[in-house]
Every structure is written in structure tokens, then in C-alpha cells.
Amino acid sequence: MKKGQIITLEDNEKYLLLMDTMQEGHKFFYANKLTPDEKTTSEYEYFEETVEGEDTYMEIVMDEEIKEFLHTVFTTDLLDMALDIETGNFSFEDDDEN
Amino acid sequence: MLTFEIEELRKTLEKYDTTDKLDLLVTKANELNDLIYSTGYTGVIENPIVTYVNNYAKYCVIALEHFKLTREIKDLAKKKEENPEDQTIDEKMSHAQASLDLAMEGLVKYKSNKEKSKEYINSTIAEQPDKKEQATEKFAEIETLCSQIGHEFNKKPSPEKMTHEELLIAYKNLLEENKELKLQNDSINARLEALEAKQKVIDEKKNQSILSKLKNGFKKVKKKVIAVKDFTVGFVKDKAVPFIKNHKKATIAILATIALAGVVGSCVAYGTPLAIPARIISAMWHPFKLVGLEGPLHSINEFLIGKLGNGTFDLIKGTWTIGSKTVNNMNIFEMVLGNLPAAAILAGTGYGLFKGGKRLIKWSKKRVKDHKKEEPESLPPAYNFENFSDEELENKISELEAILDSGEITPEYKDFSLDQIEEMFNIAAGEQEYRQNLNNPNNNEDNFESLNKRSCKKAMRKLTKLIKKWTDKTKPQEININGEYFMINNVDEAKQLYDEISYIYELKFGGRTR
Asked: Which chain A residue's Cα is nearest to B213?
């Protein structure tokens, strides 16, 4: 998975993956829940991506301390995104290197 | 011997110390000329080589003129920005523009002429089978030389050959280039600073508890991904782009109040350089002013003025000066609107993080509050208002507030100092807010935005006092704001909290708190 994609989970809930980050070998996403017809909502989740064989899973982070940490990471990333837009370097294709 | 209309060209080339190429061109052109005429060529009135080289020479001179005029117009436009009322600049610009138009016509004309001459020479060469190969080679050499002479104009002329006026222009251009380079350098440094600050924040935040959880696992709910598709194709193209296109004003408002608030909030919360939002505001100022939305933007400015010790904002030019640096020309606004998917994702992410931050603040506050319940504080009778009725409590608060506002202690409170009365007031007002919050569970769920005017002033007064009297700066302090308890680890955090509340106060109730 990568940022800029819309995923559908097994319970048919849809999310737009806004940002991603690698932390200690774990890949996390910050995602916005979408309506069935793919309109944005005001619900946001932190996911950890795991891959088992050919299947990909999104695990909703429930731990408040980890959520708080990820919030810090993504908020600081938002500044980077603003700078990337400013310099014309923003792209959905960019892979995070952190 | 060939004669060229090249006196002007020769004069110009002398300044570039490259007349050797011109001499070589004359030699080669003469050789080609002899070659063509040695076969008894009599088909033209005008010498084709002379025509070709003359056209090329004229083309080069006009190209240089065109370059100079373009630069002059750019300089004049900058001067006009600095002195909008100066009519003489308009006249100069109009004159320069007319000359530029003429130069452009000349460029088109001589480019076309030299192409025609080239065709003519080639057709002439083609008619002379025995000299064809030799003539083609000579002509190729001439073309190369002409092209090299043209390129000489991209080089800087030798300073000792320049006139005083040309030297002045060159000096001004160098100053301008230097300024641009400095700005670029500042921008790179700011970026580097931001990245370092970001890494530091993340490293500091990644404590042992987080590391242990990341290593050993933490609470999650697992769901399988059953479909994936590209956001940019579906969502942005079908929904975000039409929305942004049709609601430009709304988009501006979204970006200003959500994304920018997210950026500013992030800077405040995580200590990243505030110069970044200052630059963004500077870039957004003019388009915002155009649509009458500079008000909300300036609220953020006012806040930044307080945060950036020596920062000033020029309302007319829309530029920030931070220390000795002026930050402008950062057209993030155009960049954002030029990259609609980016605008959509930035607005979406900014909004989510803003909301998420509020939720987390609520959670942190709750955690401290729960802790508070476990260790109840016993207050002296004069400070304890728990058994007061709502009406008695309101009367007590008004009474104490009147004393604090006038600074005169009434006989009833003669045994107390003003500080003690203020403490009483704070506790009484805290009790009142606590009761209001109990009656209205939604009232305290957000952050300081729910504070009323009195609560804001009270919180700022409390924090000012706390900052002044905090002797052991390593010992965390607890403070009650609007019925919520906050654990403050150091004076900087207290100052930050003060700034946040003061910002809310300025936004909601107007006026300055400093």
C-alpha cells in the first residue's frame, strides 16, 4: 500500500491513505474514512500495515501512547508536505524513506 | 573581399574579447565565396555568402538587444513594485516594451532571412557538382562559426571594455543575483533546520515505552484489505478537483484556516521553525487580500508577531521580516492551486491532524484529571467553596473580581493579601466552571476554544503568576484551567500554554493581550 490510495477493508469500510511512515520496521498509515461513495468524512485512523502471504492487512492502532507518538510524526511530516508543495516536489508516487 | 554590416557586431564582440571568431568567419566566408565564384557562378546579383553572414550578424546583435531589454523590463517591474506611485517607471517600461516588440520583429525577420540565404547557398552549391563536397564543408564551418558567435552573447563581457553605464547595470544585476542566491540559501537552511527539528522531535518522543511497544506489540484491531485503487484517478479527479475549481474561495478558506492552522499549530506544539508559516502567510497575503480574506490570515500573523521575537509584518507589501531576513516570493498559494491533488490531500491531512490533536489533548487532560481525583486536595475554609449554592458562588466570584479589578481590599478581606484574594477567586471560578461542565458534558470536551472571556483572562493571570513565581524550574507544576488539570513540566511549557490561550482570546474577543 502507499499514500494516495483508497483501500476497502473486509467490513467494506473505505479509507483514503493520507500519509505513511516507517518506524522501527513497522509501516504506519494515517487514513481518512470515506463514505461508500468515496466522500471524505471527519473520521481518521492510524493503521499498521501487515502482509501475510498474498494478503495485506490493516491493523487499527488502539494504543493511545502509540497514537500520540504517530500523531507527532505525521504532524511534523505535514510541514514537510507543505514545503514539498511549495517547491513543486510533492508527488503521490514518492516513497517515504524514513 | 567581403564587406559585412558587421561594424556593430565587431564593436559588441570586442567587449567580449572574442573578435578572433569574427576574423575567422571573414576568412572562411571569403574562401567559400572564392570557391563558388571559381566555377564561373554568375547567377545572383547579391553575393549569397555576404547575405547569409550579414543576416546572421544582424540576428546576433538583435538577440543581444532583446536579452538586454527583457532584463531591463524585469528590473523596472521590480522597481514599480517597490514604488507603485512612480509614473516615470511606467514611461520607461512602455518605452522598453516598444523597443522589445521591435527587437522581436527584427529577430523573426533576420532569422527568416538567414534561413532563406542558407537555402539559396545550398541550392547554389548543389548546382556545382565538382566543388559540391568542398563547398558544403566550408559552409558547415561558416554555420558553426556563426552559431559560436551567437553563443558568445551568453557570456559576460570583459569588465574593462564596458562603459560606465554598462558597468552600473552589471553591478545591479550582480547584486540582484546575490540577493536571490541568499534567499535560496536561507530557504535551504530553513528546510534543513525544519528537518533536523523534526528528527529531534521524533527521537525525543520515541521513548523506551514506545520502543518497547513497537518491539513487543500493542493493542490493534486487524482487518483484511480486500480492494485497492488509486486515489488520484478516482477521488481527486471526480470529486476534489471539481470542488476546488468551483469553490476557489472556499478552498482558500480551507487552506488558511485548516492547513495553515495545522502548520502553525505543529510549529508551536513541536518547536519547529515558525519562519515556515511566516513565509507561507507572506506568499498567501496578496491573493487573500484580493478576495477579502486577509482578516483570518492576519489573526495568525498577530499570533506569530508575538512568537517571533524580532519579526515584523508589512501589511502593504505582505512581507515578513524576521531578524535581518525578508521572506517573500514564496508562491505556495499558486503552487497549491496548481497542484490540486496536493491541495486536497494537504487540506484533508491538516484537518485530520488538527482534529486528532484535539482528541489527544482531551485524552491527556482526562488522564491528569483522573489522577487528581485519586489525591483530593484539602483547602482552608476561606478557599473552599464546595458547599456554596450556585448563587452564593456567583456572588462570591463577583465580589472577588471587583477587588482584583480595583486593587482595593474591602474590610471583609482585610486579613488577606491581593495574591491570596486572587487565589480565592481562581478556586471559586474553577468550582463554578467545574459545575457548569458537569451540567454540560460537551462544554469541556475540546481545548481552550470553549473558554469564555473571563476564563481566558483568569487562565492568563494564573499562568503569568506561575511563570513569575516558578522558582524550582525543574519541578513540574499542576494548573487548573476551566476545570481541567494540566501538568506543566517547565516554564517554556507554561509560556506556550499562555500563548495558546492568549491567541484564542485575541481571536474570540479581539484586542491585544500583550
From this structure: A66
CB pair distance less than 8 Å for B360 and A68: yes
Look-up: residue for cell 482526562? B366
Interface probe, candidates A11, A83, A93, chain B, greatest B C-beta count within 10 A: A83
State pTM to two decimals: 0.38
Amino acid symbol at B384: N
pLDDT at A8: 95
Nearest CA-CA distance, residue B219 and chain A, Å: 5
Chain A from 21 to 40: CB within 8 A of any B CB: 23-26, 30, 32, 34, 38-40
What's the pLDDT tens digit per position in B172-192? 878 877 877 777 777 677 667
Looking at the 3D structure of chain A, how many domains does it have?
1
Q: How far apart are the CA of A75 and the nearest CA of chain B, in angstroms?
A: 6
Contact state of B231 with A57 under an 8 Å Cβ cutoff: no
Contacting residues of A for B351, CB less than 8 Å apart: 42
Phi, psi of A24, rounded to the nearest 5 degrees: 50, 45
Q: What residues form DSSP beta bridges with B311?
A: B322
| Domain boundaries along the sequence of chain B | 7-162, 232-353, 375-509
In a domain, A16, yes or no: yes
Q: Do the domain assignments include residue A79?
A: yes
Q: What pLDDT is recorded for position B442?
A: 41
Written as one string, the DSSP assignment of B325-387 is EEE----HHHHHHHSHHHHHHHHHHHHHHHHHHHHHHHHHHHHHHHHHHHSPPPPPGGG--TT
What is the structure's pLDDT at B390? Answer: 81
Residue B224 in grid coordinates: 483484511
